[in-house]
């Protein structure tokens, strides 16, 4: 196959992954990393250092995307049990109602847990809103990490 076509196919795959990194519930950066590994094995051999750097970016994106909503939940005054309920809501929502189900799941999990535990509507809404804002911020940061991943790969391949 033509060298230019293979590189363009890889670039298209990376761009789709970078776009997916901004969409909640789509593991864009891990998909980019997987395509990079496959491309590296089959065609263009990245250095071990490059694979490690891209792997670190992938782990960072995963951590930020999943932990930011839970950290923001705690920072907005939710109890530890509500954080756990938010985590369950995030997982259930992501699995059963993609792509936005994770955002709704964390919000509803925290909201219902806070209402059940403390019966304080204002505190429950504040904590649930904090979880939602944190989850959205984490998703945006994960998307920007995906763009950094794309730029690094472009630099290495082209």
Which of globular, elongated, flat, extended, rod-shaped describes the shape? elongated
Which spans of ≥5 residues are poorly predicted at pLDDT below 50? none
**Strand-and-helix sequence, N→C?**
HHHHHH
Average pLDDT number: 92
Total strand segments: 0
Largest sheet: none
* Strand portion: under 5%
Task: Give helix % range.
Answer: over 70%
Count of the separate structural domains: 1
Oligomeric state of the chains? single chain
Intertermini distance: 17 Å
Structural class of the helices, strands and pairings? mainly alpha
Continuous helix count: 6
Radius of gyration from CA coordinates? 19 Å
Q: TL;DR of this structure?
A:
The protein is mainly alpha-helical and 158 residues long. The protein has helices spanning 3-21, 28-42, 48-75, 80-96, 101-118, 121-157.
Mind explaining what this structure looks like?
The protein is mostly helical and 158 residues long. It has one domain. Helix content is 85%, strand content 0%. The two termini are 17 Å apart.
What are the SSEs and their pairings?
Elements: H1 3-21, H2 28-42, H3 48-75, H4 80-96, H5 101-118, H6 121-157
Task: Please name the defining characteristics of this protein.
single chain, 158 residues, mainly alpha, 0% strand, elongated
């Amino acid at each position: 196959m033509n060298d230019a076509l293979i590189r363009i196919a890889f670039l298209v795959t990376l761009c789709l992954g970078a776009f997916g990194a901004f969409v909640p519930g789509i593991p864009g950066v891990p998909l980019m990393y997987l395509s990079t590994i496959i491309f590296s094995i089959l065609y263009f051999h990245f250095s071990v250092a490059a694979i490690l750097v891209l792997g670190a970016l992938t782990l960072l994106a995963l951590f930020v995307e999943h932990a930011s909503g839970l950290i923001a939940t705690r920072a907005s005054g939710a109890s530890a049990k509500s954080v756990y309920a938010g985590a369950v809501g995030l997982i259930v929502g992501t699995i059963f109602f993609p792509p936005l189900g994770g955002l709704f799941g964390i919000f509803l999990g925290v909201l219902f847990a806070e209402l059940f535990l403390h019966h304080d509507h204002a505190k429950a809404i504040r904590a649930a809103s904090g979880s939602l804002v944190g989850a959205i911020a984490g998703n945006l940061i994960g998307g920007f990490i995906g763009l950094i991943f794309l730029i690094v790969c472009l630099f290495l391949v082209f």
